[in-house]
Design brief:
Layout lengths: L5 H4 L27 E4 L25 E4 L3 H5 L3 E3 L4 E7 L12 H4 L6 E8 L2 E8 L11 E2 L4 E4 L10 E8 L2 E3 L32 E8 L5 H6 L13 E11 L4 E7 L5 E6 L7 E11 L8 E11 L2 E12 L2
Antiparallel strand pairs: 1-2, 2-9, 3-8, 4-5, 4-7, 5-6, 6-9, 9-10, 11-12, 12-15, 13-14, 13-16, 16-17
């Protein structure tokens, strides 16, 4: 998805000098897999299907960048910085687009400013990077400004065509978007090409065919809205809560995945289990929960645990354990 980038990037193609490949640092001040997550990769398939650089389907048709997502709006409101991925000069900016969740009926109206509040940086030798969906009023640079790798240029927001707080990060070489995870990969290859990320990021940015975005415990029913807003994190269960509910929100699940969420008491005995039927299709995100009502006299104090497991093609694709110590 082009996200209205052409008007920001421009159509002039730089002539490559004896070009050296760019080296990129993470464009968000966060920890991959803990405080931020890769929601979508670049689409390598020219057809209406989606194929990421590992021949998975973590993304959407026509997606031309990498989406780095925050776990919820509570995290976004703390102010998460977006930084220059490499040294360069700011080529263009856009500011003033409001932060809002986009509904289906709004997509056509917003499509021309789909990138939202944005910065494009020229790194020379035909390399540019674009940073989309930043928070209104957060940009700290203007066109013509020289920037260093790691320098703050704004903050993650919800501007443009957005359904969750994230940075859409696009790498451009000679006017064409490229995949920073697989630059120069042969057509239809799986895992080919060269990573443009700096060496210190290689392990953290290892391919994930699905991740747990949120997990925890609640004293009652859980909704997707409460997870997205972060409200569910503010109400911690105790031994006197009306219920004990373990919940998760996962991203990047595939059709056929079988999910199981099991809640255990302090003795390690299962209290509740939610085993969902195989998914009918790929899911960008999915919520699951398992819980029990308060027993007579309240919950026994101690450590309660939950285990979430995703089986894909008969093997464990995702497995995470988490716990909570219940007190009066």
């Amino acid at each position: 998805m082009r996200l209205g980038l052409l008007s920001l990037i421009g159509l002039t193609l730089a002539l490559p000098a004896a070009a050296q490949d760019i080296t990129l640092r993470l464009p968000v001040v966060c920890e991959i897999g803990r405080t931020c997550f890769i929601q979508k990769y670049v689409d390598h398939d020219p057809s209406p299907a989606m194929r990421d650089y590992q021949c998975g389907a973590v993304g959407e048709d026509g997606h031309d960048g990498t989406d780095i997502r925050l776990p919820n709006m509570l995290a976004q409101k703390t102010g998460i910085d977006v930084v220059a991925a490499a040294d360069g000069k700011v080529a263009s900016t856009r500011e003033g687009v409001p932060d809002t969740f986009v509904k289906a009926e709004d997509r056509e109206r917003i499509s021309q400013i789909g990138c939202g509040n944005a910065v494009v940086i020229d790194h020379g030798n035909g390399w540019r990077t674009a940073y989309c969906h930043m928070a209104k009023g957060s940009l700290t640079v203007r066109s013509g400004r020289e920037v260093k790798a790691g320098e703050k240029i704004g903050q993650i927001g919800l501007s443009g065509l957005t359904e969750f707080p994230h940075l859409h990060f696009t790498v451009i070489k000679d006017g064409t978007p490229v995949d920073p995870f697989a630059y120069g990969a042969p057509e239809k290859s799986c895992g080919g090409g060269k990573s443009l990320w700096e060496a210190s990021l290689q392990r953290a940015l290892a391919y994930q065919g699905g991740s747990v975005l949120n997990k925890g415990f609640a004293p009652g029913p859980v909704t997707m809205e409460a997870i997205e807003s972060g409200a569910v994190e503010q109400d911690k269960p105790t031994t006197k809560s009306p219920a004990l509910v373990a919940y998760i929100r996962a991203i990047g699940l595939k059709g056929g995945d079988v999910q199981t969420l099991t809640l255990f008491d302090p003795d390690g005995k299962p209290l509740a289990q939610n085993k969902a039927p195989p998914l009918d299709r790929d899911k960008a995100q999915w919520m699951a929960f398992a819980g029990v009502k308060q027993p007579q006299g309240g919950f026994r104090p101690g450590l309660y645990r939950a285990i979430y497991r995703v089986e894909r093609d008969g093997k464990a694709a995702i497995e995470q354990a988490f716990g909570i110590s219940l007190r009066p």
